């Protein structure tokens, strides 16, 4: 079993209202060094297959459904699942 | 004229759409479930608002995997009218039938109320009964109403006159160029965040949505008459 972590972030050209609100909240708490906050999401996949197979299939899943390329960018990390 | 109303798990306002078509404009309406693939027998498809698939992943994203969307793509390609409102608009962008994508409202909160819109293009199957530049008031209700388009797509839409509605009074949710509704390249698929089916009778607070449904009917009967 392989575990793949897909990290989804908003594209740089896209304003992130959640990030802006969170940055302001951090500043209110006194963390004045914070210059920028961007909020993304993590998608964890557990799947079977050979390394090359998984790479190609995950890319396909991202392109077809997991990511909306109009507003989002992504990268993923492939690792083993311990004890499975 | 026979209207299909697509119903996904989580569609909330299919009954409003049914009421508008069946009871107010007096035409045939039928609910079509997301697992059904037969749309050919219909003259128009309406995609209601709500929160299909609980808005999971991204609003409208999971609906694109249902059989009804495959048939919808064929239906749209045939040139017949397709209208998606609210979540229906989000589904159309996620399915690739309309450009752009949706972000959370600039103020982060869910908002509902009435929006004043400017009708920017009356040369469509959906807006012929309005006047160019007319201001209309329609209800809205969304948390992901912040319509995003990249610069290239915006200028493409402007050049081809595919921006159909813009917010006239305020654009608080942050939509690119205050866009509230857009048309596909072929001109037969309209997506809009405001909800015309909630403004078809005075008793529910206005009738500014009525000309939209009447425009669809008018175009259909024109085509039908010319085919005879």
From TrEMBL, chain A:
GO cellular component: cytoplasm
SUPFAM superfamilies: PurS-like (SSF82697)
Keywords noted in UniProt: ATP-binding, Cytoplasm, Ligase, Nucleotide-binding, Purine biosynthesis
Transmembrane segments: none
GO molecular function: ATP binding; phosphoribosylformylglycinamidine synthase activity
EC number: 6.3.5.3
Pathway(s) this gene product operates in, as recorded in its UniProt entry: Purine metabolism; IMP biosynthesis via de novo pathway; 5-amino-1-(5-phospho-D-ribosyl)imidazole from N(2)-formyl-N(1)-(5-phospho-D-ribosyl)glycinamide: step 1/2
Keyword Nucleotide-binding part of the UniProt annotation: yes
Top-level taxon of origin: Bacteria
NCBIfam families in UniProt: phosphoribosylformylglycinamidine synthase subunit PurS (TIGR00302), PRK05974.1 (NF004630)
Function of the protein: Part of the phosphoribosylformylglycinamidine synthase complex involved in the purines biosynthetic pathway. Catalyzes the ATP-dependent conversion of formylglycinamide ribonucleotide (FGAR) and glutamine to yield formylglycinamidine ribonucleotide (FGAM) and glutamate. The FGAM synthase complex is composed of three subunits. PurQ produces an ammonia molecule by converting glutamine to glutamate. PurL transfers the ammonia molecule to FGAR to form FGAM in an ATP-dependent manner.
Similarity comment: Belongs to the PurS family.
Entry protein name: Phosphoribosylformylglycinamidine synthase subunit PurS
Species annotation: Sporosarcina limicola
TrEMBL record, chain B:
Compartments (UniProt record): Cytoplasm
Pathway membership, UniProt: Purine metabolism; IMP biosynthesis via de novo pathway; 5-amino-1-(5-phospho-D-ribosyl)imidazole from N(2)-formyl-N(1)-(5-phospho-D-ribosyl)glycinamide: step 1/2
EC number, UniProt record: 6.3.5.3, 3.5.1.2
Keyword vocabulary terms for this entry: ATP-binding, Cytoplasm, Glutamine amidotransferase, Hydrolase, Ligase, Nucleotide-binding, Purine biosynthesis
MF (Gene Ontology): ATP binding; glutaminase activity; phosphoribosylformylglycinamidine synthase activity
Main location: cytoplasm
UniProt KW Thylakoid keyword: no
Name this polypeptide is given: Phosphoribosylformylglycinamidine synthase subunit PurQ
Organism field: Sporosarcina limicola
Record gene name: purQ
């Amino acid at each position: 079993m392989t575990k793949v972590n897909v990290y989804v972030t908003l594209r740089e050209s896209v304003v992130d209202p959640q990030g802006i609100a969170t940055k302001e909240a951090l500043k209110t708490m006194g963390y004045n060094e914070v210059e920028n906050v961007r909020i993304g999401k993590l998608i964890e996949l557990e799947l079977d297959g050979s390394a090359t197979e998984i790479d190609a299939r995950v890319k396909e899943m991202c392109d077809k459904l997991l990511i909306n390329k109009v507003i989002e960018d992504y990268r993923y990390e492939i690792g083993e699942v311990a004890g499975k | 004229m026979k209207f299909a109303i697509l119903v996904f798990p989580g569609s909330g306002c299919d009954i409003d759409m049914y009421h508008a078509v069946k009871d107010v404009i007096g035409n045939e309406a039928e609910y079509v479930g997301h697992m059904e693939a037969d749309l050919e027998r219909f003259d128009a498809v309406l995609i209601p608002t709500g929160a299909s698939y609980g808005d999971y992943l991204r609003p409208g994203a999971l609906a694109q995997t249902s059989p009804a969307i495959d048939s919808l793509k064929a239906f749209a390609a045939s040139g017949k009218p397709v209208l998606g409102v609210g979540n229906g608009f989000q589904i159309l962008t996620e399915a690739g039938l309309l450009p752009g994508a949706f972000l959370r409202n600039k103020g982060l909160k869910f908002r509902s109320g009435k929006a004043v819109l400017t009708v920017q293009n009356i040369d469509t199957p959906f807006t012929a009964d309005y006047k160019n530049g007319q201001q209309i008031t329609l209800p809205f209700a969304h948390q992901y109403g912040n319509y995003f388009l990249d610069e290239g797509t915006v200028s493409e839409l402007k050049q081809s006159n595919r921006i159909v509605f813009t917010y006239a009074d305020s654009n608080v949710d942050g939509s690119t160029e205050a866009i509230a509704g857009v048309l596909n390249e072929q001109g037969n698929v309209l997506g809009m965040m405001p909800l015309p089916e909630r403004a078809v009778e005075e008793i529910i607070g206005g009738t500014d949505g009525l000309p939209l449904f009447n425009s669809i009917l008018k175009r259909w009967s024109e085509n039908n008459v010319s085919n005879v």
